Each structure stands twice: as C-alpha cells, then as structure tokens.
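Re: [help] complex structure
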Amino acid sequence: MPELSVQLLIFMFLGTVVLACAIYAVILVDLIRAGYALIFSLATLGGIYIVLGNDFLGAVQILLYTGAIAVLVLFVVMLTRKSVDGMGRAEKKQDWIWGGVLSGGLFLLLFIGINKHKDFASGLPPIVPQSDLTLQAFGMAFTEEYFVPLQIMGVLLTAAFIGAALIARPEKKGDESGKDMGAGS
Amino acid sequence: MTLGFILIISAALFCIGLFGVLSRRNMIVILFSIELMFNAAHLNLIAFWRFGENPLAISGLMFVLFSLAISGAEAAIGLALILRLYRHYKSVETQSITELKG
Amino acid sequence: MEIWTNILLLMLIGPFMAAIFGVFGAVRAPKKYILVSIGGIALSLVCSLGFLWILGVIKPAGLLVTQFAWMDFAHSSIPMSFVVDPLSAVMCFVVSFVALLVFIFSSGYMEHDERKARYFCFLSFFTGAMLGTVVSNSLLTFLIFWEMMGLASYLLIGFWYQKPSAAAAAQKAFLTTRIGDLGLLAAVFFLYNKTGTLLFFDHGAGLLEPAQIALLQKAGLWAGAGYLFWVCLLAFWGAVGKSGQIPLHVWLPDAMEGPTPVSALIHAATMVAAGVFLMCRLYPLYESVDGLLTLITWVGAITAIFAGMIAIAQSDIKRILAYSTVSQLGIMFVGLGAGGPAYAMFHLFTHAFFKSLLFLGSGSVIHACSGEQNIYRMGGLKAKMPKTFLAYVIGAAALAGIPLLSGFWSKDEILYRAFEHDKLPFLLLCATSLLTAFYMTRQVVLVFFGEFRGTKEVKHHLHESPSLLTTPLIVLAVFAALAGLIGTPWMNLFGHFIHAPEHEINVPIHLLMMLTGTALAFGGLLLGVKLYWNRSVRTMADDPLHKLLGSFFVFLNERCRVDELYEATLGRFMDVAARLSDYFEIFLEFVNRMVGGLVYTLAWVENKVLDEWVINGIFSAGCESARIKGVLAAKFQNGSLAFYLRMMASGALIAGIIYWVVK
Amino acid sequence: MFFGNVKFDSGDQIFVWAYHWFLSLFAAVPWLQFALAVLLMTVPVLLLFPTLMGLTTWAERRVLARIQNRMGPNRVGPFGLLQFIADGIKMLIKEDIIPRAADKFLHTLAPILIVIPPFLVLTLLPVGRNMTVVVSDVGLILFFALSGFGTLAIFLAGWSSRNKFSVIGGMRVVAQTISYELPLILAALSAVFVAGSLSMVSIVESQGGGFLNILSWNVWTPWGFAGFVIFFIAGLAEINRCPFDIPEAESEIVAGHLTEYSGFKYALFFVAEYLSAFAIAGLATTLFLGGWNGPVIGEVQILPSWFWFLIKMYALVVVMIWIRGTLPRLRSDQLMSLAWKFLLPLTIVNLIGSAIYTLTAQAGPWMWVAGWLISAVLIGTTYRVLVQIVYTKDAKKREYRYA
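Output below.
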C-alpha cells in the first residue's frame, strides 16, 4: 500500500483537474468553454509544478497561460464566432474513432512502457529542492551559459509577435487578390 | 508518489492532446491540443528534474522555459493565421481548406 | 589604446554615422544630408591617408592589431578585432578615395532624383561596410561586413525598384553572391572547428600565422586532399561569387541596372575587388596548399578571356565596362595565383582608378544623352563634351595598357609572372590584352568620334556635364594616368610596401615582356581603329565585327547564353528534383496508408465492419472533399489536414510498437 | 517562557506567538496540528479582509458624500457604521435573476471564480513581521499570475450574459488589463532590482533600517517614487477603479459585465473588487512604502508591524476613494495612449534608473549620492519629455464630435 501523504493527495487532486479540464478542452463544441477549460487545465498544471518544488516555473506557467495565451485564445474565438455559432459539431463518427484508437493505442503503449521500466518506480528523492537556490541557478544560467539563447529567444519572440500582428491585420479594401482562392474546393 | 505516476499523467495529457488533434476539425481546438501536448512534455522535464539527483542541474528546466517561450510564439502566430484563414474562407474547419491537394 | 586605434574607429564611424543620420530624418533636408555624407567619407579618406603615413614612414611594414571583447560565453569568447597592415591600408585608401569622388559625382548625377537621401544613406552604408571588411582581423567580423556589403549592393542595384529589370537584377546579384557566401561561411565553420580561433593575426596564434597553418596542414585528408585544401577551396568559392568569376559571373553585368555611380564604386572599383582582397588576405593559407594557386590562375585566365570576348560584342556602354571588369578581375586572380598579393593588389589599385573613371565617364555620357545607353546610337560626342572625352580616353588607354599609363605597369607585372608560371594562361592573358585594347577602342570610337546617330531630341539636349560631374573625372584621370608610376619595375614602391620584408620581391626589367604588352595594346588599338573609324554603325547588323564573325558575334552578343544554360540545367534540375521528391512523398504516403490499413484491421476484427471501413475508411473517408481523379497519386495528396495527421500518428504508433517488439 | 525566543515588542508578535502556542497544544496529534495550522492560516484572511471590505464600503460612501457635500449613510448603527451589514442582508435576500439567453453554467461560474484570486493573492502579502501566510520565493510573480484570473472571470461574466453591454464590458476589461499589466509589472520590477529577490518578505526586509526605520523605504528614492506613482496608477486600471472604470461605465454601457447580475452574485463582484483594491494597495505598500516597517525610536517599536501595514494599505485605499470623488472617467483611447505611450516608456526608463541607483549604491556614499541624482534627473527628464510629446498635442484643440 503506497504511503498516502498530503502531497500525494494534492497532486492527485490537481492531476485529476488537469486531465478532466484537458478532456473538456478537446471535446467541447462551445469554443469559449473549451478555451476556459484549456486555461484551467494549464494553470492547474502550474500548480503541479509548484507541488513538484519549482515555484518559479509554476508561477511563469500560470502567468503565461492566464495572462497572455488566454487573452489571445478568447479574442480569436470571439472574432471567429460567426462560424462557431452556426456550426454545431462538424466531426463525424469516424473522426472520433480514428482519434480514439490512435491516441488510446499510444497511451496504452506508453502506460505499459512506463510501468515496465524499473527506474520509474522510485519514490521522491530525499533532497528537497530549495526554491531560492533554484531561482539563483536560473539567474546565473540566464546571464552566463544561456545568455545567447536568451537573446535569440527575445528576438524570436519579438519577430513572432510582430509577425502575428501583421498577419492578423485586416486586409485592405483593395486587396482582393486572395479572395477567389477559397472557391476552389 | 513515484516518477512513473507523474509520467503516466503526462502521457495521458499528451494522448488527450493527440486525440484532439486527430479527431477535431476545428483549427482552434487543434491549436489547444497542441498546447496540451507541449505541456505534457514540460511536465515530463520537470518530473525528471525533481527526481534527479541534483536540484541545481537545471538544463531540463531551461528547456521548459525556452519551450514555453516558443509555445507562446507559436500560439500567437497560429491564432493569427487562423484569424487570417477565417477571413478568407469564412470557416475554421480543416476540411474546408484543402488547397494543397494533388 | 594606441592612437591608431582611434584613427581606425574614426574611419569606420564616419560613413556609418552618415548612414545612421540618413535613416533618421535625412529626407527632410537632403541637400544638407549629402554634405554630411560627403564629410563622413572625407573623414575616412583622411584617416586612411594617416594609415599610409604610419605604415610608410613611422613604422614601415608594420602590423597593427587591436582587439575588443565582443561575445563572451561561459567557455569561449569571440573578440572583435581589427588589423591595419599595408594590404588593408592601401585598400582603405582606394576605397575611401574612389568613394569620395563617387559621392561628389553622385551629388550632381542624382540631383533630380526624389530619393537621393536614401541613395546617399545606402552608399555611406556600403562604404562603411567595405572599410570594415578591409580592416577586419577576424573572419567573423569579415563575414559580417562582407554580408553588409552584399546587402548594400542589393539595395543599390535595386535602387530604381520600379524598373522590373532592376528588381530582378538586384535579386539575381543577391542570390548569386549568396551561393558564393555559403562557401565562405562553410570555410569559416571548418576553420573554427579545427583551430578554435577566427583571428587572422593574434600574436602567433592567428589563422595566418605559421603555428596554425602547420596545425591545419597536419589536419588529415578528406576525399583525397588535405583539410586545408577544402577549406581554401570553399573560401575561394566565396571570392568567386563576390568577384564575379566563372561560373558565378552572371550577376555582375546585370548589376549595371543600378545608378551608374554605384556601378563605378561597387561593381567596378571596390566591392567586386573584395574577393581578390580576401584571397590576398588569406594568401598565407593558399601558399601552403598544393595546387590551389594553379586553380586560381586558371579560373582567372579563363574568366579573363571569356569576359573579354563577350565584351567585344556588346552594345550597351555600361555592359561593355561590366564585362571588362569581370575580365580584369580575372587578370587579378591570375596575378594572385601566379605571383602573389603584391601583383593582384597593384592591378586592383590601378584598376580601381581607371575603371571607376570609365564608369563615371559613361555616367556623364549617359547623363548627356538623356539616359541612352546604346553605343550604336551615340557618336561624335568629342566636340560636345571635351572634358569627359579627355578623361574617358585616358581611362580607356590605361585599361588598354598603353605604355606609361597605370594599367600598363600593373598588367605588365602580371603578364611577366604568368609567363614565368605557366605558358597557357600567359597566352590567354595576351589574347585578353588584345581584346581589351580592341573593345575599348571600339567603344571610344563609337561614342566619341564620327557623327551623332541618335534621335534629334537627344541631340538637341547634348551638353557637357556640369563641373560637379567633370571634376571627379579629371581627378581620377590624373590618378589613372600616373598611379602606375609607383610600381614600375625600376622603382617598385608599391610591391615593397605590400610585401613583408622577408618576401623580397624583385621584378626584373624584362624589356621583351614590355614590348609584348605594348605591341598587344597597340595591336588592339589599330584593329579597332581600322574596323570602326568613320563607319556609321547604327544597328547590330551594321557592326563590322558582325560581318566578320557572323553568328559567333550574335552568340557573344547574347553573352554566350550562360543565363540560358543555367536555366536549362540548374532550373531543369530543380524541376526534376521537385518532381522526384513528389513521387517519393507519394510513395511514403502509400506505405503509410497501407500501414494505417493494417492498424484498422487489427482494431476492427468484425468482418462486416472491416469490409466497410477498409473500403470507405482507407480509400475515401477522411477525404470526401478530394476530387476523385484517375491518377492514384492524387488520392494520397488530398489536402486534408486531418488525413495527414492521422497518417503521421499511425506511423509514430507503428514505430513505437516495432520498437517494443524488437526490444 | 511562553514567548520562547520571540521578542515581545508592543504586541508586534502577538499573533505569531499565539499561533505557535495554540499549535503546540496539539503536538501529539500531527494530522490535527496540520489541519489546525491550515485553518489558522486561512480563517484570519477570510475574516479580516471581508470585514475591512464592509467597513470600506461604508467609508467610501461617507467620504464620497463629504466630497460631494452630502451626509452619506448615517442611520444604521453609530455614524451608520453598520450599514454594510444591512446592505449584505439586502443583497442576500434579493432575487437572483439569470437571463434566459445566458449561458447558465458560465453565468453562475463567473462570480465564484472572481472571488478566488483576490483571496489567494492576499495570502501572499506580508501583513506583519513573521506574518505571511504563504512565503514564496517567487511571491511577486505568483501575485501577478493569480491576479490575472480576475480578468478572465470578468470576461466570462460579460460573455456568458449574452448582453451587448456585458460583452463590450468584458472586451474592455481584457484590453485594459493587457495594456496595464506591463507598466504594473515593470514598475514592480524596480523594487525587485534593489531587493535582489522576488520574495515579498525579502523586499520588505530590504526596506528596513535607516533613520527612524522610515528613510529606507523605496518611495524616498527617485525611481521608487516614480515607480510607486506608476504602480498606483496602473494598479487602479488593473482593478477597474475610478478613473479607469471604463468596463462598467454607467453612462455608456449601463454596468458593463455587471449588467445582468443581481442579488448575491452582484455582491460577490463587489467583494472581489474591494479585495483586489486591498491587494493592490497592499502590494504597493509592500514594494514601495516599506511594508510593515514603521517608525522605531531607539529599540522600541511604537506600534506593531501589522498595524503599520494595515494603516498604510488603508491610507492607499482612502486615496483611491478620494480619486474616485475627484477625477472624471477616461475615454478608452485616452486610457490606451496613457498606458502605451506614457507609462510604458516611463517605467522602462525608471527601471534603468533603479539599475543605476542599485549599482552606485553599492559603491560608497558619494557614488550613492551621484546615483540618486542621476536617476532623479533621468526619470524627471523622461517625464518632462513624455509630457511634451504625448500631451501637448491633445491640449491644443479638442473636437467633440458627439457632444
């Protein structure tokens, strides 16, 4: 019988919330609900990170998904709502079967694999990570070893967001060249 | 709490994401699912860090941070593209966009 | 920090600051901005003169190296480093001097252009980048400035982007030089991989110093040749791209779509010579490899004769000069391969003066002829524009190698070295000299003598260019005439300046060789005069050479159909490759599909379901929207994202299962 | 002794030792001790702040009334102090209306979601010396992360009501939050620079010492002052208080996301709004006003640390009320231009200023003075230039197209 610690209880609770919300996020028709489910799922995942002893990444995860990505998702869902409202469910039975069989098969594969592996049965290690030391290590890594990747990441993010803004910009009135492309199919 | 337990949760999260990608036709939901798969990978990395010997060996965590940034950029670009496609095709379903067929 | 470091930074800052000023708000006051940018270049010129003085008088044959911390990583660091040695000092002088004159010329030439502020901004940017390339002491900074030059060249060729031909030429130039740059980049990687440094000179630890060269020479074989051989070959490929040698010469003639002063500065005097400069800079490496110098000689000689032949059949005044540039660059490569940096650099030095003079002169002619560039529709300009005529004739004579003018001395040295080195390249060079004299005579005769053959309107507007345009021409003409005197065999100041003291160079006074050169120059001249004097050549059919050579002339006029050749080979190859990969993809999809079907059979054992789903699910379900075509392949590329994703996932799953089973 | 090694000082640690003493009674039963510890941590937060909130509603009405030359509520209890209880009872017994078109589940979920983040956030604040419920090394990031939920809940409320005004209100909230989160976080970062820690306790401790235990507060430095003002303004926008109450602007869109809410759900929104106000005021106190550091004379602390914290926090809340009584509401575009054109550049320069200050302060007293002056001049000049650039154009001429 496994030892039932408070930590495990919290972890199981959070894990259930994550998985349940994730399932909702992929099966709900109403995209606003699905979006909220996704955000809850990922924010709760941040909680799991904190339980696992990494406050910093947990906080960053929550900040990123409740702040930035949530807003993006909600706005895009709102802006494309005309199609969403009148749509109902576009998926056919075979879609669900394909997805279910393939992802179920993969899960089965992973489940058996993880259970078979001896190293994965080990319990929590005795060394509890001190979050201030971890944070310090992050800071040092960012200023020394990972300095250039960090800068590159900054450039990448800037480029990505400018690009996203440019792509999402409404077309000018005169720019009708792409219109008839959609008629092809 | 064992490492395998966390890995199974992460595997489940990944498979839920895969399920969404494979069975949904709405591009926004497919993007959601991709986020889920990303985060399953992050959970894996953090679990391995926690169960590793040295909490100060943070290479894996740096992966998570960079991957978070990438997934943020990916979400922004992906949603912008979806918006653009929606303006063109008046639809966000994958089945309605088949320009690349041979 | 020594004083010369400050001078160096000042030299770089001048043009770059001018470029930055141009970015921020020069549009409001273009006239003032032009003065600012000319001031920036003048500053560079003064600094480069300072370097000549330091290296010539204070510290002869010295090597000034400075180093700044630039990128410090946890385990390694890449410094930013600059060097001033005789090689770079001479090059700095050439670049800033020609650039200054071109700037002054441009201020008159581009006076009526709306976007002249932008033009000067680009030009300043180019000059700064070129100077940076020249003084780089690290391959990385060299590469950065090199690419910046490429960018500036792209921007300036496409300056009149409203012309489709200019836009296409800009793209062609950029992409073609990129093909070469790829080689240089690879060379940089390989060098860094083996030596761990990118510095040229670093107190005995630099790439060009004996210790590292010995290390590289020992670095083992690959595909039958040494490591160093391949590295040097890659770097040479970069130089070939930048300097427009065969087979990457195609961009340079097209680059004449840019404004004429740009052609003078970038595509005649400086940037295209950067490839030669790179070879001179890396000469210690090339010296230590067998066979590469011979290769360089051959590439140069073939390019020289090839481009010279094309040049005799062109009708566009700038295109003739462009092919002449390619040809002269080939001669420089011969000089490098057969002799050494001193010979190549000397020809580069003199060539910069007379070729920029010729380009600026042609700019003046085009300016006078209201934009007409076809030499068949010019003629008799001698009377209308005497100053331009005089300068142009001096430049042409220098290029043709008429004795005592600058081109004679530099070409003579190279001929001599080629003769010593190998006989066949020497003969090719002799033929090139003859052709050079011939096409320059042809051009001068058709443009300046005889009667005017253009439209009346153009004739009405004919005028001598303003003094803002002619003054730079006259200054350059003086240099084109006299610059060669610093490198005569009797008193080879230039060679002694460039070479380190241990490389004592000694060109014996070889009268026979000089006579050969003279004879070739005058032979070409006489041939040209005989064919073209007092002939009214209005179209290509009228051309006496056309009558002489027949269809070969047409072939030459069409530039030996190199572009078409590339179209037919490389373009076709790309098509075929695309199609092949297409088929491969279809094959993969097919395999995937079969595997997917297998999964289905496993999952759905019931017979009825199996029938239904194998037929529906595998061949048509998931792609209802796909049109059913007769071709089997079309079904696999149905454009349905869901279908592709499913196939990918099935593949991954199968791979996982196989992994487990095998394990 | 009872007190153990905790120094008793004007009631400073009274709650801390009471907590430890109480728990020590149950040392024999670990699980009970743990459960009691959790209760003792959470119940005070759940009691203290709602009570304060009730009092604040009263105070707000009284203060506003004074500003507007009225009396305000004065009937229920002494000076009308018990008014909030009457209001609460009224809210509880009112009918709870859900519009037929609304998404019932989400409509009910929104008010529940909205009260959670403020409570979570309040647990992160160091209320007094050794009196922080959740001590986290990344407290500041957690604060901002959790407070982000509030926006989502408001958007949910607006969207689920299926009412035009509600949706507009929801959209406005989101737009406003995105704009103001950046200056808010960047302003807070300047305090992080100086303390060298993201932990709120360390930030407060770094402001201790100095003359009378006052002069080390961040607010007395140039960057601290500017940061405090920026933080306060951005915070007002973050919690949708006047003059940034654009999402619920009564004169334009009825009540924004609150339009379709009534009864106790409506009350929950108000609870959340006041609690967020406390949270932002508390965070401003922690970051810039020295947190629980109060005047010390010799060895004697005049008043307990938690008292100082509450006083400062409450003073900021009163300032918010004062602002509400004084300033008109901004237009949406004015709000955006303030955030992006004015506050954001200023915070970035402020960050640079605090970096300069931090570097020089380590180098000795004279360098400290120089750093102080440099950052003051830097921030002051930037402020002046920004005013010149952003606001002179508007000041010249105004056209009221729909007035």
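The radius of gyration of chain A is 22 Å.
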